[in-house]
Design a protein that fits this description.
Layout (H helix, E strand, L loop, with lengths): L3 H12 L18 E7 L2 E6 L9 H14 L6 E5 L13
Parallel strand pairs: 2-3
Antiparallel strand pairs: 1-2
Pfam family, one: FeS_assembly_P
Protein name: Metal-sulfur cluster assembly factor
Length: 95
């Protein structure tokens, strides 16, 4: 049986299925943009990337991830961090 952190991560990944990357047309989860989700004190921290550095949809995606988690009631405070290490590649997409 998954622990609380595992259940929370699963729930977050489920609600983020609704956040669609406008460039590729798939969810941020399915195309591999979400790297990690963890509770940090009172905040939920999401580590994610975009398909390219300088992606014009980066702020849209960050805002959408944050808002979707808040709207689902899974956290009262959400921090989204963008990283490009490792850089995204199509190999990260779910098959």
């Amino acid at each position: 049986m998954p622990d609380d952190a595992g259940r929370l991560t699963k729930s977050i990944r489920e609600v983020l299925q609704d956040v669609i990357d406008p460039e590729i047309g798939g969810s941020v989860v399915d195309i591999g943009l979400i790297y990690a989700v963890e509770k940090r004190g009172e905040a939920l921290h999401v580590l994610m990337t975009t398909t390219t550095r300088g992606c014009p949809a980066a702020q849209f995606l960050v805002d959408a991830v944050k808002q979707r988690i808040l709207d689902a009631g899974l956290a009262d405070r959400v921090e989204v961090e963008l990283t490009y290490d490792p850089p995204w590649s199509p190999d990260m997409m779910r098959k």
